[in-house]
Amino acid sequence: MSKSLGNVIDPIDVIQGLSLEKLHEKLYEGNLDEKEIVKAKAGQKKDFPKGIPQCGTDALRFALCAYSGGGRDINLEILRVEGYRKFCNKIFNATKFAMLKLDETFVPEPIAKPTGNESLVEKWIFHKLNIAATEINRQLTERNFMAATTVAYNFWLYELCDVYIEAMKPMTDPSASETTRKSSQQTLYTCLDYGLRLLHPFMPFVTEELWQRLPRRPNDSTPSIMLAKYPTFDKDFVFEDADKQFDLVFNATRTGRSVAASYNLQSDIQIFLHITNDAEAALFESQVPTMVTLTKGCKSVKVVRDLSEVPAGCGSTALTHTIGVHVLVRGLVDLDVEIEKCEKKLHLARLGLEKIKKIEAQADYEDTVPANVRVANEDKRMVYEAEVATLEVSKAMFAQLK
Protein backbone atom coordinates (compact mmCIF):
# COMPACT_ATOMS: atom_id res chain seq x y z
CA MET A 1 0.00 0.00 0.00
CA SER A 2 1.16 3.49 -0.78
CA LYS A 3 -0.35 6.89 -0.06
CA SER A 4 1.00 8.19 -3.35
CA LEU A 5 -0.98 5.48 -5.15
CA GLY A 6 -4.15 6.38 -3.28
CA ASN A 7 -4.82 2.82 -2.16
CA VAL A 8 -4.43 3.28 1.60
CA ILE A 9 -7.87 2.71 3.10
CA ASP A 10 -9.14 4.35 6.27
CA PRO A 11 -11.20 1.72 8.13
CA ILE A 12 -13.75 4.41 9.02
CA ASP A 13 -14.38 4.95 5.31
CA VAL A 14 -15.16 1.25 4.88
CA ILE A 15 -17.50 1.31 7.87
CA GLN A 16 -19.34 4.50 6.93
CA GLY A 17 -18.83 4.56 3.16
CA LEU A 18 -17.33 7.39 1.09
CA SER A 19 -17.91 8.72 -2.42
CA LEU A 20 -15.11 8.88 -4.99
CA GLU A 21 -15.18 12.69 -4.82
CA LYS A 22 -14.68 12.62 -1.05
CA LEU A 23 -11.82 10.14 -1.48
CA HIS A 24 -10.18 12.61 -3.86
CA GLU A 25 -10.65 15.45 -1.37
CA LYS A 26 -8.91 13.52 1.41
CA LEU A 27 -5.74 13.39 -0.70
CA TYR A 28 -5.28 17.11 -0.14
CA GLU A 29 -5.22 16.61 3.64
CA GLY A 30 -1.74 15.06 3.46
CA ASN A 31 1.58 16.32 2.16
CA LEU A 32 1.49 14.83 -1.34
CA ASP A 33 2.75 17.00 -4.18
CA GLU A 34 0.55 17.67 -7.22
CA LYS A 35 2.05 14.87 -9.34
CA GLU A 36 1.44 12.31 -6.60
CA ILE A 37 -2.13 13.58 -6.13
CA VAL A 38 -2.85 13.11 -9.84
CA LYS A 39 -1.39 9.60 -9.65
CA ALA A 40 -3.36 8.81 -6.48
CA LYS A 41 -6.62 10.04 -8.02
CA ALA A 42 -6.10 7.71 -10.97
CA GLY A 43 -5.46 4.82 -8.56
CA GLN A 44 -8.59 5.60 -6.55
CA LYS A 45 -10.70 5.84 -9.70
CA LYS A 46 -9.41 2.45 -10.81
CA ASP A 47 -9.83 0.71 -7.44
CA PHE A 48 -13.03 2.47 -6.29
CA PRO A 49 -14.88 3.72 -9.40
CA LYS A 50 -18.09 4.16 -7.39
CA GLY A 51 -16.40 5.09 -4.13
CA ILE A 52 -16.44 2.86 -1.05
CA PRO A 53 -19.88 1.45 -0.15
CA GLN A 54 -21.05 1.57 3.45
CA CYS A 55 -20.15 -1.85 4.89
CA GLY A 56 -20.47 -1.47 8.65
CA THR A 57 -18.24 -2.52 11.51
CA ASP A 58 -19.24 -6.18 11.63
CA ALA A 59 -18.60 -6.76 7.92
CA LEU A 60 -15.16 -5.14 8.16
CA ARG A 61 -14.19 -7.12 11.26
CA PHE A 62 -15.37 -10.37 9.66
CA ALA A 63 -13.41 -9.55 6.49
CA LEU A 64 -10.21 -8.79 8.41
CA CYS A 65 -10.53 -12.11 10.26
CA ALA A 66 -11.16 -13.89 6.97
CA TYR A 67 -8.06 -12.26 5.47
CA SER A 68 -5.85 -13.11 8.46
CA GLY A 69 -4.35 -16.25 6.92
CA GLY A 70 -2.45 -14.45 4.19
CA GLY A 71 0.29 -12.73 6.15
CA ARG A 72 0.66 -9.27 7.70
CA ASP A 73 -0.13 -7.32 4.51
CA ILE A 74 -3.81 -7.45 3.53
CA ASN A 75 -4.82 -6.75 -0.06
CA LEU A 76 -8.34 -5.75 0.92
CA GLU A 77 -10.94 -6.26 -1.79
CA ILE A 78 -13.83 -3.92 -1.08
CA LEU A 79 -16.32 -6.10 -2.96
CA ARG A 80 -15.54 -8.93 -0.56
CA VAL A 81 -16.21 -6.69 2.43
CA GLU A 82 -19.46 -5.60 0.79
CA GLY A 83 -20.28 -9.29 0.36
CA TYR A 84 -19.94 -9.77 4.12
CA ARG A 85 -22.28 -6.80 4.64
CA LYS A 86 -24.82 -8.69 2.54
CA PHE A 87 -24.08 -11.72 4.72
CA CYS A 88 -25.01 -9.59 7.76
CA ASN A 89 -28.27 -8.72 6.02
CA LYS A 90 -28.85 -12.41 5.28
CA ILE A 91 -28.41 -13.29 8.96
CA PHE A 92 -30.70 -10.44 10.01
CA ASN A 93 -33.45 -11.33 7.53
CA ALA A 94 -33.19 -15.07 8.19
CA THR A 95 -33.46 -14.54 11.95
CA LYS A 96 -36.33 -12.09 11.49
CA PHE A 97 -38.18 -14.61 9.30
CA ALA A 98 -37.41 -17.46 11.68
CA MET A 99 -38.78 -15.47 14.61
CA LEU A 100 -42.13 -15.40 12.82
CA LYS A 101 -42.12 -19.20 13.08
CA LEU A 102 -41.74 -18.92 16.86
CA ASP A 103 -45.24 -17.82 17.86
CA GLU A 104 -46.09 -15.88 21.01
CA THR A 105 -46.78 -19.08 22.93
CA PHE A 106 -43.35 -20.56 22.14
CA VAL A 107 -41.23 -21.40 25.17
CA PRO A 108 -37.74 -22.91 24.68
CA GLU A 109 -36.91 -26.17 26.40
CA PRO A 110 -34.96 -25.70 29.67
CA ILE A 111 -31.83 -27.22 28.10
CA ALA A 112 -30.60 -27.43 24.52
CA LYS A 113 -30.99 -31.15 23.93
CA PRO A 114 -32.81 -33.19 21.27
CA THR A 115 -36.28 -34.26 22.41
CA GLY A 116 -36.43 -37.49 20.41
CA ASN A 117 -39.15 -36.19 18.09
CA GLU A 118 -36.75 -34.74 15.52
CA SER A 119 -37.21 -35.39 11.81
CA LEU A 120 -34.30 -36.38 9.56
CA VAL A 121 -33.50 -32.80 8.53
CA GLU A 122 -33.58 -31.67 12.18
CA LYS A 123 -31.06 -34.34 13.16
CA TRP A 124 -28.98 -33.31 10.14
CA ILE A 125 -28.86 -29.62 11.13
CA PHE A 126 -28.03 -30.53 14.74
CA HIS A 127 -25.13 -32.64 13.47
CA LYS A 128 -23.92 -29.81 11.21
CA LEU A 129 -24.20 -27.35 14.12
CA ASN A 130 -22.11 -29.70 16.26
CA ILE A 131 -19.47 -30.02 13.54
CA ALA A 132 -19.36 -26.23 13.14
CA ALA A 133 -19.00 -25.64 16.89
CA THR A 134 -16.25 -28.25 17.19
CA GLU A 135 -14.31 -26.94 14.19
CA ILE A 136 -14.62 -23.25 15.13
CA ASN A 137 -13.34 -23.96 18.64
CA ARG A 138 -10.40 -25.90 17.21
CA GLN A 139 -9.52 -23.14 14.76
CA LEU A 140 -9.81 -20.42 17.41
CA THR A 141 -7.51 -22.42 19.70
CA GLU A 142 -4.98 -22.53 16.86
CA ARG A 143 -5.55 -18.80 16.15
CA ASN A 144 -6.65 -19.65 12.63
CA PHE A 145 -9.32 -16.96 12.31
CA MET A 146 -9.62 -17.34 8.55
CA ALA A 147 -10.70 -20.98 8.84
CA ALA A 148 -13.01 -20.19 11.78
CA THR A 149 -14.87 -17.52 9.81
CA THR A 150 -15.21 -19.87 6.85
CA VAL A 151 -16.86 -22.54 9.01
CA ALA A 152 -19.25 -20.03 10.58
CA TYR A 153 -20.11 -18.53 7.19
CA ASN A 154 -20.76 -21.92 5.58
CA PHE A 155 -22.96 -23.11 8.43
CA TRP A 156 -25.17 -20.04 8.41
CA LEU A 157 -25.44 -19.59 4.66
CA TYR A 158 -25.38 -23.08 3.16
CA GLU A 159 -26.84 -25.25 5.92
CA LEU A 160 -29.07 -23.18 8.20
CA CYS A 161 -30.45 -20.59 5.75
CA ASP A 162 -30.39 -22.49 2.46
CA VAL A 163 -31.55 -25.83 3.81
CA TYR A 164 -33.07 -26.04 7.28
CA ILE A 165 -35.03 -22.78 7.37
CA GLU A 166 -36.45 -23.64 3.95
CA ALA A 167 -37.14 -27.29 4.78
CA MET A 168 -38.91 -26.46 8.04
CA LYS A 169 -41.56 -24.24 6.41
CA PRO A 170 -44.10 -27.06 5.91
CA MET A 171 -43.26 -28.39 9.40
CA THR A 172 -44.49 -25.12 10.96
CA ASP A 173 -47.58 -24.93 8.77
CA PRO A 174 -50.91 -25.00 10.66
CA SER A 175 -51.69 -28.29 8.90
CA ALA A 176 -48.66 -29.99 10.49
CA SER A 177 -49.09 -31.99 13.68
CA GLU A 178 -48.44 -30.25 16.98
CA THR A 179 -45.52 -32.60 17.73
CA THR A 180 -43.88 -31.85 14.38
CA ARG A 181 -44.43 -28.12 14.73
CA LYS A 182 -43.05 -27.91 18.28
CA SER A 183 -40.02 -30.05 17.46
CA SER A 184 -39.11 -27.93 14.42
CA GLN A 185 -39.49 -24.75 16.49
CA GLN A 186 -37.21 -26.04 19.25
CA THR A 187 -34.61 -27.09 16.68
CA LEU A 188 -34.80 -23.70 14.97
CA TYR A 189 -34.43 -21.88 18.27
CA THR A 190 -31.36 -23.90 19.29
CA CYS A 191 -29.73 -23.32 15.89
CA LEU A 192 -30.36 -19.57 16.04
CA ASP A 193 -29.18 -19.31 19.65
CA TYR A 194 -25.99 -21.33 19.12
CA GLY A 195 -25.42 -19.99 15.61
CA LEU A 196 -25.42 -16.37 16.84
CA ARG A 197 -23.06 -17.28 19.68
CA LEU A 198 -20.64 -18.92 17.23
CA LEU A 199 -20.64 -15.79 15.06
CA HIS A 200 -20.37 -13.32 17.94
CA PRO A 201 -16.55 -12.99 18.14
CA PHE A 202 -16.48 -11.95 14.48
CA MET A 203 -19.74 -9.95 14.27
CA PRO A 204 -20.46 -8.67 17.79
CA PHE A 205 -23.04 -5.99 17.00
CA VAL A 206 -25.53 -7.76 14.75
CA THR A 207 -25.34 -10.95 16.81
CA GLU A 208 -25.98 -9.06 20.07
CA GLU A 209 -28.94 -7.24 18.52
CA LEU A 210 -30.52 -10.44 17.20
CA TRP A 211 -29.73 -12.55 20.27
CA GLN A 212 -31.50 -10.02 22.49
CA ARG A 213 -34.65 -10.57 20.42
CA LEU A 214 -34.68 -14.31 21.07
CA PRO A 215 -36.75 -15.62 23.98
CA ARG A 216 -34.73 -17.05 26.87
CA ARG A 217 -34.76 -20.57 28.18
CA PRO A 218 -36.41 -20.97 31.61
CA ASN A 219 -34.06 -19.88 34.44
CA ASP A 220 -31.62 -18.27 31.95
CA SER A 221 -30.97 -14.66 32.94
CA THR A 222 -27.79 -14.11 30.88
CA PRO A 223 -27.85 -10.35 30.13
CA SER A 224 -25.67 -10.37 27.02
CA ILE A 225 -24.46 -12.73 24.32
CA MET A 226 -20.94 -11.73 25.40
CA LEU A 227 -21.53 -13.59 28.66
CA ALA A 228 -23.35 -16.57 27.15
CA LYS A 229 -21.55 -19.92 27.08
CA TYR A 230 -19.77 -20.48 23.79
CA PRO A 231 -21.01 -23.64 22.00
CA THR A 232 -18.68 -26.64 22.04
CA PHE A 233 -18.92 -30.29 21.00
CA ASP A 234 -22.02 -32.00 22.40
CA LYS A 235 -22.36 -35.78 22.11
CA ASP A 236 -26.16 -35.43 22.16
CA PHE A 237 -25.99 -33.63 18.82
CA VAL A 238 -24.13 -36.43 17.05
CA PHE A 239 -26.33 -37.95 14.32
CA GLU A 240 -23.90 -39.53 11.88
CA ASP A 241 -26.44 -41.79 10.16
CA ALA A 242 -28.91 -38.94 9.71
CA ASP A 243 -26.10 -36.76 8.37
CA LYS A 244 -25.19 -39.31 5.69
CA GLN A 245 -28.82 -39.99 4.81
CA PHE A 246 -29.86 -36.36 4.41
CA ASP A 247 -26.65 -35.50 2.57
CA LEU A 248 -27.69 -38.13 0.02
CA VAL A 249 -31.21 -36.69 -0.17
CA PHE A 250 -29.89 -33.16 -0.58
CA ASN A 251 -27.41 -34.24 -3.24
CA ALA A 252 -30.31 -35.74 -5.20
CA THR A 253 -32.26 -32.51 -4.69
CA ARG A 254 -29.40 -30.41 -6.02
CA THR A 255 -28.97 -32.77 -8.95
CA GLY A 256 -32.65 -32.44 -9.82
CA ARG A 257 -32.41 -28.65 -9.59
CA SER A 258 -29.32 -28.68 -11.78
CA VAL A 259 -30.99 -30.79 -14.47
CA ALA A 260 -34.07 -28.55 -14.38
CA ALA A 261 -31.90 -25.42 -14.63
CA SER A 262 -30.04 -26.85 -17.62
CA TYR A 263 -33.40 -26.93 -19.44
CA ASN A 264 -34.41 -23.52 -18.03
CA LEU A 265 -37.37 -25.04 -16.16
CA GLN A 266 -38.71 -22.69 -13.49
CA SER A 267 -42.17 -24.07 -12.74
CA ASP A 268 -44.18 -27.32 -12.83
CA ILE A 269 -40.96 -29.30 -12.39
CA GLN A 270 -41.59 -33.06 -12.16
CA ILE A 271 -38.74 -35.19 -10.81
CA PHE A 272 -38.56 -38.98 -10.96
CA LEU A 273 -36.04 -40.89 -8.85
CA HIS A 274 -35.20 -44.37 -10.12
CA ILE A 275 -33.82 -46.20 -7.07
CA THR A 276 -32.81 -49.86 -7.05
CA ASN A 277 -31.83 -50.11 -3.36
CA ASP A 278 -34.72 -50.91 -0.98
CA ALA A 279 -33.39 -48.91 1.98
CA GLU A 280 -32.63 -45.87 -0.18
CA ALA A 281 -36.05 -46.06 -1.82
CA ALA A 282 -37.74 -46.03 1.59
CA LEU A 283 -35.54 -43.11 2.67
CA PHE A 284 -36.39 -41.00 -0.37
CA GLU A 285 -40.10 -41.80 -0.16
CA SER A 286 -40.10 -40.37 3.37
CA GLN A 287 -38.29 -37.23 2.18
CA VAL A 288 -40.43 -36.36 -0.85
CA PRO A 289 -42.11 -33.35 0.86
CA THR A 290 -38.70 -31.96 1.83
CA MET A 291 -37.32 -32.37 -1.69
CA VAL A 292 -40.36 -30.60 -3.16
CA THR A 293 -39.92 -27.75 -0.67
CA LEU A 294 -36.21 -27.37 -1.44
CA THR A 295 -36.75 -27.32 -5.21
CA LYS A 296 -38.20 -24.00 -6.33
CA GLY A 297 -41.01 -24.48 -8.84
CA CYS A 298 -41.25 -28.21 -8.15
CA LYS A 299 -44.65 -29.79 -8.79
CA SER A 300 -43.83 -33.33 -7.70
CA VAL A 301 -41.12 -35.83 -6.81
CA LYS A 302 -41.83 -39.52 -7.39
CA VAL A 303 -39.73 -42.53 -6.39
CA VAL A 304 -39.87 -45.47 -8.82
CA ARG A 305 -38.26 -48.90 -8.58
CA ASP A 306 -38.36 -49.83 -12.27
CA LEU A 307 -36.88 -47.71 -15.05
CA SER A 308 -39.96 -48.40 -17.17
CA GLU A 309 -41.95 -46.25 -14.72
CA VAL A 310 -39.94 -43.18 -15.74
CA PRO A 311 -41.96 -41.39 -18.46
CA ALA A 312 -40.47 -40.79 -21.89
CA GLY A 313 -38.95 -37.37 -22.47
CA CYS A 314 -36.84 -36.89 -19.34
CA GLY A 315 -33.49 -35.24 -18.89
CA SER A 316 -31.52 -37.77 -16.86
CA THR A 317 -28.34 -38.28 -14.89
CA ALA A 318 -26.98 -40.90 -12.48
CA LEU A 319 -26.34 -39.69 -8.93
CA THR A 320 -24.92 -43.04 -7.78
CA HIS A 321 -24.97 -46.54 -9.21
CA THR A 322 -28.31 -47.10 -7.42
CA ILE A 323 -29.96 -43.69 -7.91
CA GLY A 324 -30.95 -42.07 -11.19
CA VAL A 325 -32.45 -38.57 -11.34
CA HIS A 326 -34.91 -37.82 -14.15
CA VAL A 327 -36.66 -34.50 -14.86
CA LEU A 328 -39.62 -34.43 -17.27
CA VAL A 329 -38.90 -32.07 -20.18
CA ARG A 330 -41.20 -33.56 -22.85
CA GLY A 331 -42.68 -30.88 -25.10
CA LEU A 332 -40.21 -28.28 -23.88
CA VAL A 333 -37.08 -29.23 -25.80
CA ASP A 334 -35.72 -29.84 -29.29
CA LEU A 335 -35.57 -33.64 -29.55
CA ASP A 336 -32.66 -33.70 -32.01
CA VAL A 337 -30.63 -31.46 -29.71
CA GLU A 338 -31.40 -33.67 -26.71
CA ILE A 339 -30.41 -36.82 -28.58
CA GLU A 340 -27.13 -35.14 -29.51
CA LYS A 341 -26.59 -34.16 -25.85
CA CYS A 342 -27.20 -37.75 -24.78
CA GLU A 343 -24.71 -39.02 -27.36
CA LYS A 344 -22.01 -36.62 -26.13
CA LYS A 345 -22.61 -37.56 -22.50
CA LEU A 346 -22.64 -41.24 -23.44
CA HIS A 347 -19.30 -40.85 -25.19
CA LEU A 348 -17.72 -39.27 -22.10
CA ALA A 349 -19.27 -41.83 -19.75
CA ARG A 350 -18.05 -44.73 -21.89
CA LEU A 351 -14.55 -43.26 -22.01
CA GLY A 352 -14.53 -43.01 -18.22
CA LEU A 353 -15.84 -46.55 -17.90
CA GLU A 354 -13.22 -47.95 -20.28
CA LYS A 355 -10.47 -46.15 -18.39
CA ILE A 356 -11.53 -47.63 -15.05
CA LYS A 357 -11.92 -51.11 -16.56
CA LYS A 358 -8.40 -50.96 -18.02
CA ILE A 359 -7.00 -50.02 -14.63
CA GLU A 360 -8.88 -52.85 -12.92
CA ALA A 361 -7.80 -55.33 -15.61
CA GLN A 362 -4.07 -54.88 -14.91
CA ALA A 363 -2.38 -58.14 -13.94
CA ASP A 364 -0.94 -56.86 -10.66
CA TYR A 365 -3.95 -54.67 -9.78
CA GLU A 366 -5.04 -56.64 -6.70
CA ASP A 367 -1.50 -56.82 -5.31
CA THR A 368 -0.20 -53.29 -5.98
CA VAL A 369 -3.24 -51.05 -5.57
CA PRO A 370 -4.32 -50.19 -1.99
CA ALA A 371 -7.71 -51.49 -0.86
CA ASN A 372 -9.24 -48.02 -0.41
CA VAL A 373 -8.27 -47.07 -3.98
CA ARG A 374 -9.76 -50.32 -5.32
CA VAL A 375 -13.03 -49.56 -3.50
CA ALA A 376 -13.06 -46.02 -4.92
CA ASN A 377 -12.43 -47.36 -8.42
CA GLU A 378 -15.23 -49.89 -8.04
CA ASP A 379 -17.62 -47.11 -6.99
CA LYS A 380 -16.56 -45.02 -10.01
CA ARG A 381 -17.06 -47.98 -12.34
CA MET A 382 -20.57 -48.64 -11.02
CA VAL A 383 -21.51 -44.96 -11.34
CA TYR A 384 -20.24 -44.90 -14.93
CA GLU A 385 -22.18 -48.09 -15.69
CA ALA A 386 -25.34 -46.57 -14.22
CA GLU A 387 -24.72 -43.34 -16.16
CA VAL A 388 -24.33 -45.25 -19.44
CA ALA A 389 -27.51 -47.26 -18.81
CA THR A 390 -29.48 -44.14 -17.86
CA LEU A 391 -28.32 -42.16 -20.89
CA GLU A 392 -29.01 -45.03 -23.28
CA VAL A 393 -32.60 -45.21 -22.02
CA SER A 394 -32.97 -41.40 -22.26
CA LYS A 395 -31.64 -41.39 -25.80
CA ALA A 396 -34.05 -44.16 -26.81
CA MET A 397 -36.98 -42.31 -25.17
CA PHE A 398 -36.19 -39.07 -27.00
CA ALA A 399 -35.88 -41.02 -30.27
CA GLN A 400 -39.33 -42.60 -29.73
CA LEU A 401 -40.90 -39.16 -29.30
CA LYS A 402 -39.74 -37.99 -32.74
UniProtKB/TrEMBL annotation:
Q: Which terms does the UniProt entry file under GO BP?
A: valyl-tRNA aminoacylation
Q: State one molecular function term (GO).
A: ATP binding
EC number of the protein? 6.1.1.9
Q: Where is the Aminoacyl-tRNA synthetase class Ia domain?
A: 1-76
Coiled-coil boundaries: none
Q: Which keywords are on file for this protein?
A: Aminoacyl-tRNA synthetase, ATP-binding, Ligase, Nucleotide-binding, Protein biosynthesis
GO cellular component annotations of the record: cytosol
Mention any Pfam family matching this sequence: tRNA-synt_1
Mind telling me which InterPro entries this protein's record contains? aa-tRNA-synth_Ia, Anticodon_Ia_Val, M/V/L/I-tRNA-synth_anticd-bd, tRNAsynth_Ia_anticodon-bd, Valyl-tRNA_ligase
Q: Which residues form the Methionyl/Valyl/Leucyl/Isoleucyl-tRNA synthetase anticodon-binding domain?
A: 122-270
- State the Gene3D superfamilies in the record: Isoleucyl-tRNA Synthetase, Domain 1
Q: Provide the family line.
A: Belongs to the class-I aminoacyl-tRNA synthetase family.
Q: What is this protein called?
A: valine--tRNA ligase
